[in-house]
Amino acid sequence: MTILSKQPFKGIYVLFAMGATLAQMPIWILKYIFQRGRQHPTWTFKQAFGGRLLNAVLHHSTVIQMDGALTLNPGKEKDRFITIAPAQASYYAGPLASNDAVKPATIGATWYPTPPSQTADFSTAIIVLHMHGGAFVIGDGRTEASGFAANLLLQHTGATHILKPQYRLSTLPASATSNPFPAALQDVVTAYLHLVHALRVPAANIIVSGDSAGGNLAIALTRYLAEHGAQLSIPNPAACWLFSPWISPLRSDEASVVANAHFHVDYLPVSFVNWGIAAYSGLGGLALLSDPYIDALRAPFATPVPVWVNAGEVEVLYFDIKRFADEMGAVAGNRVVLDIEEAAPHDCFLVGKLNGFEGAGERTARRAGVWWEGVRKGGSG
């Protein structure tokens, strides 16, 4: 935590950042009004300007380490917001019990479009358990931040309900109570167990899904079920969707990101990535990031769950995502499909409405739905 994350310095910096950003906007306009000045030759002015503005917002949010405090109050979501108590301790085994200071906790979650009734028949429902992105440090799954992505799934994939868990966010300075790994993964398991145990949703009607850091959690959950599910009597879901998943925080250090061929095209600032890495690793330090439940590269695993992996063609994470898909697909019995959205930056599924890539988000969701329909009919998608 820096001095700029505390008042009154935080307020002063926010005013400075707003002024500096406004001062730079005429320069951005002059640069991006011409196609040759844009980050990618096929991007529109709105996409180029939106990407640069999003980069600035994320950077300044990092400098002040924007408050990630979560509440279990329903708020604007009203009856769509629920709280979920953790399951019995025995369900949190292996990596979920790797830090004695991090225990399962009660979490919040938001239903889209509406919560199912207590007597709901899930035999024909398709429930998506979706984990939001945000580098493990921002986001909450609620409507303001995640409504766009939830609506894409509802409109284009055949999903009937979306449940977005409000998993614990990691904070700095690192401490025993700063929610480092495996806090978020514990919460994801809590949400999954709520579906299969409390609501008795057939696992064959559940799709595990996630974008960016949430994609990392979706992979970790799928791995956990593959390695511990049988022993704990937790069934596997029907499928897994990964939208621009953050495959390897370990390989997202500043030098690697800056050297990435897509660094000057994508909107992700190094500062934001570093914040997420430091907070999620906690007191365990960067050595913890090599855990296969955090770093999915070079650690493929066998799973009966069909996996659909999406990447933006020009996002910083593209190369790791492609490598992950190749490694997972090479495991005997795995069914993995790599989907590429042409000329797209990181996670249009989540932020497409903010940076002019709504169409990319819609196309991506539509292809996820087509793939799922193929899986339902007995194919590989």
From TrEMBL:
Record keywords: Hydrolase, Membrane, Transmembrane, Transmembrane helix
Transmembrane segments: 12-34
Residues annotated as catalytic: 212
Record GO terms (molecular function): hydrolase activity
InterPro entries named among the record's database cross-references: AB_hydrolase_3, AB_hydrolase_fold, GDXG_lipolytic_enzyme, Lipase_GDXG_put_SER_AS
The keyword Transferase is annotated on this UniProt entry: no
Record-annotated Alpha/beta hydrolase fold-3 domain positions: 128-349
Family that this chain belongs to: Belongs to the 'GDXG' lipolytic enzyme family.
Name the UniProt record assigns to this protein: Alpha/beta-hydrolase
Lineage, top ranks: Eukaryota, Fungi, Dikarya, Ascomycota, Pezizomycotina
